[in-house]
Amino acid sequence: MRNSLLDVAKAIDLSKAVIRNIKMNLFWAFFYNAIGIPVAAGVFYLSLGIKLNPMIGAAAMSLSSVCVVTNALRLKKFKINYERKEDVKMGENVKLITIEGMSCNHCKMTVEKALNSLEGVTEVEVSLENKSATIKTNKQVENTKIREVIIDAGFNVIDIK
């Protein structure tokens, strides 16, 4: 337990990923069993001549279980896109800027360079995934100046918080 409200958003995203994973596992298990059980029971033997050795059927069911467990283990690699902004020093201002038009590392570097050119900016962090930039300043920087340097760099500012 931590004291950040971002952890609630992270928990919601993780729960959505778990539900998506459960639905995927159920779909594939149903699909597999809808085909495998009639073949193993010999339903297609008279019409198509297809039959299944019980040992192969048992191995296939075991493989199905392994696939379901392996798919569920993918959740260990689940990444949360939220960034923690903790331990802000006294006298340091933090602004989150939502930017439209960034699509590659060149765009990211252009935005970083533009924001670093502002007087008072001490740190710049640009995220392509979130289409945003976070700046830390040691003095008050006007939003109009921030908006101006980003527009001059060729991008649109959606919001500054």
In the predicted model, the low-confidence regions spanning at least 5 consecutive residues are: 84-90
Radius of gyration computed on alpha carbons: 27 Å
> What number of domains?
2
Proportion in β-strands: 15-25%
Characterize the overall form: elongated
Helix/sheet category: alpha+beta
Largest sheet: 4 strands, antiparallel
Rounded to the nearest angstrom, the distance between the terminal CA atoms is: 27 Å
Count of DSSP strands? 4
Strand order of the largest sheet: 2-3-1-4
Write structural notes for this entry.
It is a single chain. Residues 84-90 have low confidence and may be disordered. A hairpin with a 4-residue loop joins β2 (121-127) and β3 (132-137). This protein is of the alpha+beta class. It has a four-stranded antiparallel sheet. It is elongated. α1 packs antiparallel against α3. It folds into two domains: 6-77; 93-160, 2-Layer Sandwich (Alpha-Beta Plaits), CATH 3.30.70. Helix content is 51%, strand content 16%. The longest helix has 36 residues, at 6-41.
